[in-house]
């Protein structure tokens, strides 16, 4: 006869594979439902576990919210604050009339700079056109040496492309009887006796 809890434990462990013992143990087991979990979390170990996990996720949520708020402030608000501070410092000690004159001068300077840039682009476009180069390169031109650079770059690229296409074949361009008008032909470009820029310039002039 079983008289104390130790004997019960020993009996169950010894006969754990017995069908009657297995059925008895299952009859004492409570199904895991939402109500069971909520009851377990109300106090004791369950409450401690719940509080600990809530603290972890709460701290993570707070940290994420702080990081998002800082990032939004730096992106949307901070640049404006900096500009306002710089503007306020630059006009410090000036009368409203002086501030208005300074603002007007800045607008005039900006308009002058835009006009000079437009004129420079137009000049560079014409120079590029004379060389038979793409006028969209005008915005990259600061001095005449830049035009020469692009001209050489394109000429070399064309000649390299022609050489790569012809390779070491036995093909030879047909001989001509000369050109009394001095017109540059594509043959002259492939032979290397004339530049691609000069060829394009000639084509543009004939249009």
From TrEMBL:
**InterPro entries, sorted:** Gp46
* Stretches for region Disordered: 165-186
Q: One Pfam family, please name it.
A: DUF4355
Record's keyword terms, sorted: Coiled coil
Q: Which residues form a coiled coil?
A: 94-131
Lineage, top-rank taxon, reads Bacteria
Return the protein name: DUF4355 domain-containing protein
Organism of origin: Clostridium butyricum
